[in-house]
C-alpha cells in the first residue's frame, strides 16, 4: 500500500511536486520522440559526437512546449475555432502553404493616428512605473493622475513590463494620445477628446493560413517530422493526438507516414504563432489512423476519428469486477499496518485471492515486478500523462512483460496480498502528470464520440478534411517492404 517514493513526495511542498511532475512528463515525452540510443549507434556512428548537443537542443525545445501542450491537448480541449474554409488545390511540392480565404476585419491604429503626427516612444525599463515613464516623456504628475483615472476601471495600464513601449503624442505640453501595445493582437489607445481621456482597446484578428506537411519515417517521428518542417511544438501536439493508438518510441516502422494540416497565424504578413492541427494522419505498420479536429456547437474542440469516435480512450472506473471498496482515497488515513497517519493515494478493492485484475485503459506496461510495500505490482502508462498502478497481486498474467501493450479490460494479474497488506485486495492508483488522483472521482480524459446532434455537421467537416488530406498529398510513397 505504500512506497518509499510516496513518503518522499509527502515531504516536498506542493509546488515542488508539481515541478517534478512536469519534469516527469517532459522526460516521458522526450523518450517518446527521440530515437533510441541503440538505433542511433548502429545506424550512423558519425553522428555520435553531434548527438548530445542535438538532443540537448531538442530537450530544451520540448521543455518549452511541453507544458503548453498539456494545457492544450492532454487535458480537455476547449476554445473557439474559426470556420473551415475551402482551399485551393495544393501546389506540387512537399510542403504547401495555402492562404485561407477568411475575411479579416482589422481595425488598425491608423484610425487613431495620421502620418504627420509626431509620436515619441519610450521603452519600459526595469524599475520603471507609469510616473517615471511619464516624466521621461516630459509630462507631469497631473498627466499621470489623469491617465490613471481614465484607466482606473479597465486597469489597462496596471501591468506594464520592461521591454514594452508606450508611445506618446504630445502637442505643446498637452498629452493628446497614448498608445500601448499589449501584444501583437491588442493595443490600448487613450486619447484626449474634449477635456476627457477616452480609452479604447483595439483588437486585431490574425490571418489564418493553413499549412500541410507530410513525410515518411526513416528514423523517428521527431527527426523526420522536423526534417519535413514541423516545429517541435507541432510534433508534440501530433504525438499527443495519436499517442493513444501509436507507440512512437517502440512501435513505429521505417516507411510509416505522417500528414498534418494545421493553422498558422499571421499579422501584417508576419507569422505570430502556430494554431491548431485541424487534421492529421499517421500510417503505422500499414494501419491508418486519422484525426479530425471538430468544434461542437458549445465551442469545445476535440479530435475524432473520421467516423466520429474520440481519439481518446476511456478508463474503466474499477479494474476488478464484483469488488467492494475497503479503503478509499484519503490523504490523512491511519495506515492499518504501520499504524500512523499516511496518505492513502489510491483505492483498495477487497476481493478474494485470484480475482482477475483488468487494465483500466489501453496502454503499455512500464513496470512489472515487486515494488516495496506494493508487493507484486504493475504500472501501465496510458497516453503521455496518465499512469495506473495495480498492487498486492498474487500473480501476474504470465503472457505480459514490461513493455507489453495492453487493451482496456485485459486481465493483467490476480488479486492477492503480496507486500504490505492485511488481506487480499487490489490497491489501485491513478496518476495524472505524476500526481495521484482519486480513481473514483477523477475526470477521465474525454472519450465520448461526437454527439448525435452534431453528427451531420461533423461528417461534413470530416469529409472535407479527409478530402484535403488526399488533395494535398504529393508524395508517391515507396512501400517499405
Ligand atoms: Zn491501498
Q: Care to describe what's here?
A:
This protein has 481 residues and is α+β, with helices and mostly antiparallel strands. Helix content is 23%, strand content 30%. It has 9 helices and 21 strands. Strands 12, 13, 14, 15, 16, 17, 18, 19, 20 and 21 form a 10-stranded antiparallel sheet that branches. It has a 6-stranded antiparallel sheet with strand order 1-7-8-9-10-11, with helices on both faces. Strand 16 (376-382) and strand 17 form a beta hairpin. Helix 2 (14-33) crosses helix 4 (51-74) and helix 4 crosses helix 8 (232-242). It is extended and about 90 Å long. The two termini are 49 Å apart. It binds zinc ion (ZN). The site of zinc ion (ZN) has 6 residues, from loops.
SSE diagram, text form:
Blueprint: H1 4-11, H2 14-33, H3 37-43, H4 51-74, E1 96-99, E2 119-123, H5 130-136, H6 141-150, E3 165-171, E4 174-183, E5 186-193, E6 196-203, E7 207-216, H7 221-228, H8 232-242, E8 257-267, E9 270-284, E10 287-295, E11 301-304, E12 324-327, E13 347-350, E14 356-358, E15 363-370, E16 376-382, E17 386-396, E18 405-406, E19 411-415, E20 425-432, E21 435-437, H9 455-472
Helix pairs in contact: 2-4, 4-8
The protein binds zinc ion.
Amino acid at each position: 500500500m505504500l512506497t518509499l517514493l510516496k513518503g518522499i513526495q509527502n515531504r516536498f511542498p506542493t509546488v515542488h511536486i508539481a515541478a517534478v511532475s512536469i519534469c516527469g512528463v517532459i522526460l516521458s515525452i522526450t523518450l517518446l520522440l527521440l530515437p533510441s540510443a541503440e538505433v542511433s549507434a548502429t545506424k550512423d556512428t558519425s553522428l555520435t559526437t553531434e548527438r548530445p548537443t542535438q538532443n540537448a537542443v531538442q530537450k530544451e525545445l520540448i521543455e518549452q512546449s511541453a507544458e503548453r501542450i498539456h494545457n492544450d491537448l492532454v487535458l480537455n480541449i476547449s476554445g473557439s475555432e474559426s470556420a473551415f474554409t475551402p482551399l485551393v488545390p495544393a501546389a506540387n511540392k512537399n510542403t504547401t502553404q495555402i492562404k485561407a480565404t477568411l475575411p479579416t476585419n482589422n481595425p488598425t491604429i491608423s484610425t487613431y493616428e495620421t502620418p504627420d503626427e509626431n509620436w515619441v516612444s519610450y521603452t519600459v525599463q526595469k524599475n520603471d512605473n507609469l510616473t517615471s515613464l511619464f516624466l521621461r516623456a516630459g509630462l507631469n504628475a497631473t498627466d499621470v493622475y489623469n491617465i490613471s483615472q481614465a484607466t482606473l476601471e479597465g486597469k489597462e495600464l496596471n501591468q506594464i513590463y520592461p521591454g514594452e513601449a508606450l508611445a506618446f503624442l504630445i502637442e505643446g505640453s498637452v498629452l493628446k494620445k497614448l498608445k500601448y501595445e499589449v501584444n501583437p493582437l491588442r493595443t490600448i489607445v487613450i486619447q484626449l477628446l474634449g477635456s476627457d481621456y477616452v480609452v479604447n482597446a483595439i483588437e486585431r484578428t490574425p490571418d489564418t493560413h493553413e499549412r500541410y506537411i507530410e513525410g515518411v519515417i526513416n528514423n523517428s517521428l521527431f527527426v523526420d517530422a522536423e526534417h519535413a518542417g514541423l516545429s517541435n511544438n507541432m510534433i508534440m501536439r501530433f504525438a499527443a493526438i495519436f499517442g493513444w493508438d501509436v507507440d512512437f518510441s517502440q512501435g513505429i516502422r521505417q516507411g510509416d507516414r505522417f500528414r498534418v494540416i494545421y493553422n498558422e497565424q499571421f499579422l501584417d504578413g508576419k507569422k505570430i504563432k502556430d494554431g491548431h492541427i485541424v487534421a492529421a494522419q499517421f500510417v503505422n505498420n500499414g494501419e491508418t489512423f486519422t484525426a479530425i479536429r471538430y468544434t461542437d456547437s458549445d465551442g469545445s474542440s476535440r479530435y475524432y476519428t473520421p467516423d466520429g469516435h474520440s481519439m481518446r480512450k476511456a478508463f474503466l472506473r474499477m479494474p476488478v469486477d464484483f469488488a467492494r471498496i475497503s479503503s478509499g482515497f484519503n490523504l490523512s488515513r491511519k495506515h492499518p499496518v504501520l499504524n500512523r497517519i499516511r496518505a492513502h493515494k489510491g483505492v483498495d478493492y477487497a476481493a478474494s485471492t485470484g480475482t482477475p485484475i483488468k487494465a483500466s485503459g489501453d496502454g503499455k506496461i512500464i513496470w512489472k515486478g515487486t515494488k516495496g510495500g506494493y508487493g507484486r505490482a504493475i504500472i501501465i502508462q496510458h497516453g503521455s500523462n496518465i499512469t495506473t498502478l495495480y498492487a498486492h497481486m498474487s500473480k501476474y498474467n504470465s503472457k505480459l512483460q514490461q513493455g507489453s501493450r495492453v487493451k482496456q479490460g485485459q486481465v493483467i494479474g490476480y488479486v492477492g496480498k503480496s507486500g504490505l497488506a492485511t488481506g487480499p485486495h487490489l490497491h489501485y492508483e491513478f496518476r495524472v502528470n505524476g500526481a495521484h488522483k482519486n480513481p473514483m472521482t477523477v475526470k477521465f480524459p474525454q472519450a465520448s464520440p461526437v454527439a448525435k446532434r452534431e453528427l451531420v455537421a461533423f461528417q461534413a467537416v470530416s469529409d472535407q478534411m479527409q478530402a484535403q488530406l488526399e488533395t494535398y498529398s504529393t508524395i508517391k510513397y515507396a512501400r517499405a517492404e
